Amino acid sequence: MFEAVKQLKDIVIRRIDWLDARELSQLLRESEDEGFRLVKRLVSEFESGHNRFDQPGEVLYGAYEDNQLIGICGLNQDPYLQDRTTGRVRRLYVLPAYRRRRIGHKLVKVVTGYAQDYYVRLTLKTDNPLAAQFYEKLGFHSNDPTPHSTHYIDLFHSEDRIATQTPF
Fold it and tell me: Where do the N-acetyltransferase domain residues begin and end (predicted)?
């Protein structure tokens, strides 16, 4: 346990206002090697201007170790709903060599904390069973009734649960 906490202290979570292709190259390469297209979509949508995480209530965070980007997670207004009280967790990805060190957990906690000022509910979609388990451990519920979503969390219930599971 001490080792995991010690390792996490070296990880810095920072807001990303502009994507740097060089900075993202390892995430892009490794995500594609795993068969995931989420980082490629992040880059494509950012470059086209379709999604730059720059609308009210939106943000993109990166996890860094020694100034190297090792993970990423974003928050958008849910694009499938007219309701502006629902946000959507998007593009969570952590390099394989850095998994099981609670980096994804920390990214989701930071995004959820940011979302508290803007939304009452967060949604997300995943077709990956391991990702589904990960989100459910963080308090997200499966079988989201909203369109194009698999999971949701009501924020007024989420912060206590996420905070109690986080050792930092």
Answer: 11-159
Distance separating alpha carbons of residues 57 and 69, to the nearest angstrom: 23
Q: What is the pLDDT of residues 10-29, one digit of tens each?
A: 899 999 999 998 999 999 99
State the CATH architecture for 2-164: 3-Layer(aba) Sandwich (3.40)
Q: If phi over 0 gives left and psi between -120 and 50 gives alpha, with beta otherwise, what is residue 53?
A: left
- Tokens found for residue 140: 């997200």
Residue tagged 């391991």 (tokens): 130
Domain residue limits, the chain: 2-164
- CA 150 to chain CA centroid, Å, is 15
Record the pTM: 0.86
DSSP state of 120: S
- Fill in the DSSP letter of residue 112: H
Structure tokens at 25: 């190259």
